[in-house]
Amino acid sequence: MKQDMIVILDLGSEENARLAREIRALGVYSEIHPHDITKEALLALPNVKGIILNGGPNRIVDGVEIDVSDEVRDCGLPVFAVDHKGAAAWPTEEAGRRLALRAFVFDICGAEANWNMENFIADQIELIRRQVGDKKVLLALSGGVDSSVVAALLIRAIGDQLTCVHVNHGLLRKGEPEQVVQVFRNEMKANLIYVDAVDRFLDKLAGVADPEQKRKIIGAEFIRVFEEEARKLEGIEFLGQGTIYPDIIESGTKTAKAVKSHHNVGGLPEDLKFELVEPLKMLFKDEVRACGKALGLPDSMVYRQPFPGPGLGVRCLGAITRDRLEAVRESDAILREEFEKNGLAGKVWQYFTAIPDLKSVGVRDNKRADEWCVIIRAVNTIDAMTATVENVPFELLQHITARITSEVKGVNRVLYDLTPKPTGTIEWE
C-alpha cells in the first residue's frame, strides 16, 4: 500500500468532514469511522498511523455518552483525543488548529505526505483485487459522475470480471441512456447490460408523493433489477456502488440524524447475498472528479452534472405523472443547453430544474391556463456539504424563462431558487 492513513473516530463531532479534509490538505489520507469500530476492523485498515478521537456536542447517544472500546484505545497506535472525556477542544484560531494537527500527524504519528490520486487509485486497485479475487462484480452504472468513476476504477482493477448494468428507469435526463451506452460499451469496451425498466419503475411509483418513500422504492427496485440480472450470469458475488462520503453523512450516522436517505447507503436486503464494493465511499465530490481525471475519463463525463440516484423522481415533486416528468426532462435540457452556450457549464457546479405538483393560473393563447411552474436551481460548492447560489445574469434567466414557457408543454411560470445550503439542500425534494 502506498498511502499512510489517519483514522478519525466519530465521538459526536459536527466537523468530522472538515477534519478529514484538513488532514488530506496536509498530504495524508484520512478516513472517518464510527466510534464503536472493533480493534480487528481498525487494524485491518491499511497503513493506519494514528487515531483521532473527535468528540463534540453529539456525544450522548440513547442517553449514554459514547466512547471507544478499551481495546481500540490500547491498540498500540498514537491516540489524540479532542473534546472528549475532559480533553481540550480544537483551538479556535486556524493557525493553532493547523499546528496541533501537524504536530500529531507528522511528529507523533510519523505519517508521510503521500496522499494523492495516483496513490489512492493504486491502493484501491490493490484492495479491490484482494476483496474480489477471481469472482465477478455487478455494477450499478447510472452514468453519473460517481458510478462512472467507480466503473473506470473497477475496469482497471479487474477488467472483464466486471459487468455493468445500466437501468433506464424513466427518470433519467434527456439523452442520458444513449450517452451511457456510447461511452462505456462503445468507447471503453465494458461489459454493459442495458435494461429498459421505464414502465416497471413508473408503475411502482404511481401515486407516491413522499420523497423518502420514492427513494426507498427506487432503491429497492434497483436492487431487484440487479438481482435478476445477476441470476442470468455466473459467478456474481459482489455489487459495486458509487457511494461517496456526503451520501453517508446525509443518510445519517450513529451520532447525527439523517438529512435524506440515499439508496446506496445502509447495506443490502438480508435475502441478497452480494458483498458490496464501494471504493469511493470515503471521498468527497471534488475528490471523485480528480480521481476520474486521473483514471483518464473524458471531461464530459468527469465534469458532468451531479445527478441523484433516484434521478428526476425527486425533481418531479409530489406524485410522479408522466407528463410532468417529461416537462422536468425537457426544461432541464433547455437549462443545460443555455448554460453551455453562455459559458456557465464549467463555472456552475450544479444546475437543474424541478417541478412541484402545483398549478397556477396563467394565460396561453388568450385563454386561462392552469399549468405548472418550473424551479431553476444553480449552486456552487466544493464538497457538496455546503453550497452558495450562482448569480445568473437576469437577462439570461429571462431568456431561459421564455424558452421553457414556450417550448415545454404544461408550464406557465419559471422561478429561481435563491436558497443556499444550509438552510436548503442542493436537491429539491
What count of domains describes the coordinates? 3
Report the sheet-strand fraction.
15-25%
Reported by name, the CATH topology of the largest domain is Rossmann fold
Report the end-to-end length measured between terminal Cα atoms.
41 Å
Contiguous helical run count: 14
Account of the protein in words:
With 429 residues, the protein is an alpha/beta fold. It has 14 helices and 16 strands. The protein has helices at residues 16-25, 39-44, 70-73, 94-108, 117-132, 145-158, 176-187, 198-205, 211-231, 245-250, 285-294, 299-302, 322-341, 394-407; strands at 5-11, 29-34, 48-55, 60-61, 64-65, 79-82, 136-140, 162-168, 191-196, 236-240, 275-277, 350-354, 359-364, 367-380, 388-389, 411-416. Strands 9-8-7-10-11 form a 5-stranded parallel β-sheet, sandwiched between helices. Strands 12, 13, 14, 15 and 16 form a 5-stranded mixed β-sheet that branches. The longest helix is centred in the middle third of the chain and has 21 residues, at 211-231. It is globular, with a radius of gyration of 23 Å. The relative contact order is 0.10. Residues 258-265 have low confidence and may be disordered.
